[in-house]
Amino acid sequence: MLTYPEIDPVAIAIGPLKIHWYGLMYLLAFGTSWWLANLRAKRPESGWTPQQVSDLIFFGAMGVILGGRCGYVLFYNFPQFLEDPLWLLRVWEGGMSFHGGLLGVLLALAWFGHKYKKNFFDVGDFVAPFVPLGLMFGRIGNFIGGELWGRIADPQSVPWAMVFPRAGDLPRHPSQLYQAALEGFLLFVILWWFSSKPRPQKAVGAAFLIGYGLFRSIAEFFREPDAHIGFDLFGWMSRGQLLSLPMIVIGIAFMVWAYRGANNPAKTA
């Protein structure tokens, strides 16, 4: 069994100014996305300018933050919102949802596409490969914060299990790191490779939906469900798996559409 590395959630403190690790993970996520997007935008055939990339990252960041918070309230704790509507604005108390953030980003991409007269699906294909590394940093932030821990594990069969201070005295799977590896790093490698060659419009975005949905569903088998929710279906399906299922179905449908579309020219995202 490993010892959980209790890290001060405050990474930098200068007088009254405190910068938390979770905030730094967000900065790393957006900064890495900006760097990778500019790297792809330098291709002669990309059709993207540095100013468009900067605006895209800003729009996406707003979608992540606003959508992530609203999604958490709607999908995971709506009764608390009904009792205390101002809780929606108290983001410092925690509570963000990937699936809500995804919806927020999709709306932001639609707004961005309208502003710059770019096709929504082209923008989605361009953005998709950069998202997983941001998710990886977010899960690392969850691990440092000792939140969203995994299910109870037997140290003899899971020697890397650890006791999370806020989760009781029993060793658990470090599921945050599983998610960082699967829906973060591994998905990034797959999408970066997949998008490095010309693909039909919608194919890269579809690959993201399928990949994330599958990897999130796998990781959820090791993650402890929210205490106030438990399992949603069949006594084993979690809320995260339930929300990921439509992503897989939609992703497969879009992938079929992409490769059967006679009018969708092959392109590089």
From TrEMBL:
<keyword id="KW-1133">Transmembrane helix</keyword>
<comment type="similarity">
    <text>Belongs to the Lgt family.</text>
</comment>
<dbReference type="Pfam" id="PF01790">
    <property type="entry name" value="LGT"/>
</dbReference>
<keyword id="KW-1003">Cell membrane</keyword>
<keyword id="KW-0812">Transmembrane</keyword>
<keyword id="KW-0808">Transferase</keyword>
<feature type="transmembrane region" description="Helical">
    <location>
        <begin position="242"/>
        <end position="259"/>
    </location>
</feature>
<feature type="transmembrane region" description="Helical">
    <location>
        <begin position="177"/>
        <end position="194"/>
    </location>
</feature>
<feature type="transmembrane region" description="Helical">
    <location>
        <begin position="203"/>
        <end position="222"/>
    </location>
</feature>
<comment type="function">
    <text>Catalyzes the transfer of the diacylglyceryl group from phosphatidylglycerol to the sulfhydryl group of the N-terminal cysteine of a prolipoprotein, the first step in the formation of mature lipoproteins.</text>
</comment>
<feature type="transmembrane region" description="Helical">
    <location>
        <begin position="126"/>
        <end position="145"/>
    </location>
</feature>
<dbReference type="InterPro" id="IPR001640">
    <property type="entry name" value="Lgt"/>
</dbReference>
<feature type="transmembrane region" description="Helical">
    <location>
        <begin position="19"/>
        <end position="36"/>
    </location>
</feature>
<keyword id="KW-0472">Membrane</keyword>
<feature type="transmembrane region" description="Helical">
    <location>
        <begin position="56"/>
        <end position="76"/>
    </location>
</feature>
<feature type="binding site">
    <location>
        <position position="139"/>
    </location>
    <ligand>
        <name>a 1,2-diacyl-sn-glycero-3-phospho-(1'-sn-glycerol)</name>
    </ligand>
</feature>
<comment type="pathway">
    <text>Protein modification; lipoprotein biosynthesis (diacylglyceryl transfer).</text>
</comment>
<protein>
    <recommendedName>
        <fullName>Phosphatidylglycerol--prolipoprotein diacylglyceryl transferase</fullName>
        <ecNumber>2.5.1.145</ecNumber>
    </recommendedName>
</protein>
<feature type="transmembrane region" description="Helical">
    <location>
        <begin position="96"/>
        <end position="114"/>
    </location>
</feature>
<dbReference type="GO" id="GO:0008961">
    <property type="term" value="F:phosphatidylglycerol-prolipoprotein diacylglyceryl transferase activity"/>
</dbReference>
